[in-house]
Design a protein that fits this description.
This protein is of the alpha+beta class. The chain folds into 2 domains: 12-325, BirA Bifunctional Protein, domain 2, CATH 3.30.930; 332-419, Anticodon-binding domain (Rossmann fold, 3-Layer(aba) Sandwich). It has 15 helices and 16 strands. The protein has helices at residues 20-39, 53-58, 86-96, 139-154, 170-179, 187-195, 202-210, 216-223, 233-242, 288-292, 308-317, 319-330, 345-357, 371-380, 414-419; strands at 43-44, 50-52, 70-72, 78-81, 104-113, 125-134, 163-169, 249-251, 265-271, 278-284, 301-307, 335-339, 362-364, 385-389, 395-400, 405-410. The strands form 3 sheets. Strands 1-5-6-11-10-9-7-8 form an 8-stranded mixed beta sheet. Helix 4 packs across helix 9 (233-242). The structure holds one RNA strand of 75 nucleotides.
Length: 421
RNA sequence: GUGGUCGUAGCUCAACGGUAGAGCCCCGGAUUGUGGUUCCGGACGUUGCGGGUUCAAAUCCCGUCGGCCACCCCA
């Protein structure tokens, strides 16, 4: 039987392999995210990929979503591969939040799993960077999170002409219901109508609104509310302005987020070219930690996540970001030792160890090969330098491959010269 | 969950009823210690899988699995 005929040799649908080229790209993205998050004073954490199903059931008591990788383990536990980070974060905080000075600013970059039909921008395993600030309910936190989310985009060269942030506050719609004498306990039901406003047919929306004794016109009228006249937003917009973020942010009352647990401020990031694509989303969830911990811990919190699939799609689609990435990944690094005289192989191996100990990336041909062949290897290994070892020993010939220039150095000087690169 | 579309060497594709081909990549070579060009040679596929029609199927039909796209959903 041909080995690849067997289904066990096939990758599971919606999962990805990361060959070195793809892994290099993934690392490039994650390393930049990590550096930016740290520059905002966020600390990295992680939790297990597998949690009890109960943890996800707890979440605001909502009905369990169907799209879970759920199974019973060999210890007869009902478990799920994590579909999102927030419940895990809440669990961690419920156990130890007292140990950390507030506000707690944490981030993680980790894989998530949802049993969905794979399609563009949506796979069954994907990565997210999750950033949260816990223990502070001020508008400064909301603005700071937007600032971080924007910075996580800008580090790849994305600008305000590539993406923008839509912000809203769910409380506005709560007030709207109150003003129209509608029951506030139906808020989440009402918000899901608003959420679908852009995609649903008008008649359908109007029909749904009828159960609230509301009409489309009054909703549309409310949507046009100018930001200046929205109470509570002044503080947030002031904070955003101080951070120079006003060109990235728009008030958009249709952004309410699908999840029930959001309590006020919410936002989503969209790309400008295809405005229906959401790159990131988040908001404030002041009650969730208390809910999940059965009241053990009660802390205000806000956060957001960026998924890697849609995000990296965008980076590959835009010429300026793609070129920037290709340039970064193509940059030559390290040294390739060319053994021109096989009797010097012991010295070459010794030099390799010395250089590696001083932090230089060093590679060489494991078996005897022609010099021309070794230079080809140096090239395809992406080395910056070729170090030729042969008759010159104890001196070596160092060639800067991109420039095709050579110089002769003593082996003692090599770590200092190569170490800078 | 529903619908559309596609599935030929690692990659991009050709052959569209008569026993599968190109380019790239990979491996080797073009005489002595210098690479991205060029030239020559080589390896690699029971045409996603299963069944059917036919003297004959990569090619037609059915099923199945997978990719892509849209709907549903979207933490």
């Amino acid at each position: 039987m041909h080995p690849f005929d067997s289904s066990y040799m096939q990758r599971l649908p919606g999962f990805r392999d990361f060959y070195p080229e793809e892994f290099a790209f993934r690392n490039y993205v994650f390393e930049n995210w990590r550096r930016v998050a740290r520059s905002f004073g966020f600390l990295e954490y992680d939790g297990p990929a597998l949690e009890t199903t109960e943890l996800y059931k707890k979440k605001s008591g909502e009905e369990l979503k169907t799209q879970l990788f759920r199974f019973v383990d060999q210890g007869n536990r009902d478990v799920c591969l994590r579909p999102e980070m927030t419940p895990t974060l809440a669990r961690l905080l419920a156990a130890r939040s007292r140990e950390y000075r507030k506000p707690i600013k944490w981030f993680s970059i980790s894989p998530f799993f949802r049993f969905e039909k794979p399609q563009k921008g949506r796979l069954r395993e994907f990565y997210q960077i999750n950033c949260d600030i816990i223990g502070d309910d001020s508008p400064a936190v909301d603005a700071e999170l937007i600032g971080l989310a924007v910075a996580l985009h800008r580090v790849f060269g994305l600008t305000e002409s590539d993406f923008f942030v839509r912000v809203n506050n769910r409380n506005l719609w709560a007030e709207f219901l109150v003003k129209h004498q509608q029951p506030i306990d139906r808020l989440s039901e009402f918000l899901s109508i608003i959420d679908k406003l852009e995609r649903e047919k008008e008649e359908v929306t109007a029909d749904k609104l009828r159960s609230f004794q509301l009409d489309l016109a009054s909703v549309r009228e409310f949507l046009r509310t100018p930001p200046e006249s929205v109470p509570g937003f002044n503080a947030l917009f002031q904070e955003l302005q101080w951070r120079g973020l006003e060109t990235f942010v728009e008030l958009d009352l249709t952004i309410v987020r699908g999840l029930e647990y959001y309590t006020g401020f919410v936002f989503e990031i969209f790309d400008r070219a295809k405005e229906n694509r959401s790159l990131a989303g988040g908001g404030r969830y002041d009650n969730l930690i208390s809910t999940i911990s059965d009241g053990q811990t009660d802390l205000p919190a806000a956060g957001f996540a960026i998924g890697d699939v849609t995000f990296t799609n965008l980076l590959q689609e835009l010429d300026h970001t793609r070129e920037r990435i290709e340039h970064a990944l193509r940059t030559p690094r390290g040294a390739f030792i060319v053994v021109a005289d096989e009797t010097r192989r012991p010295e070459a191996l010794g030099l390799a160890q010395t250089l590696r100990r001083s932090g230089v990336i060093v590679d060489y041909s494991l078996n005897p090969a022609k010099v021309a062949r070794q230079f080809q290897q140096a090239e395809s290994a992406g080395a910056k330098y070729a170090v030729v070892i042969g008759q010159e020993w104890p001196q070596v010939r160092v060639k800067l491959l991109a420039e095709r220039t050579e110089q002769i150095l003593s082996k003692e000087d090599l770590p200092a010269v190569l170490g800078e690169n």
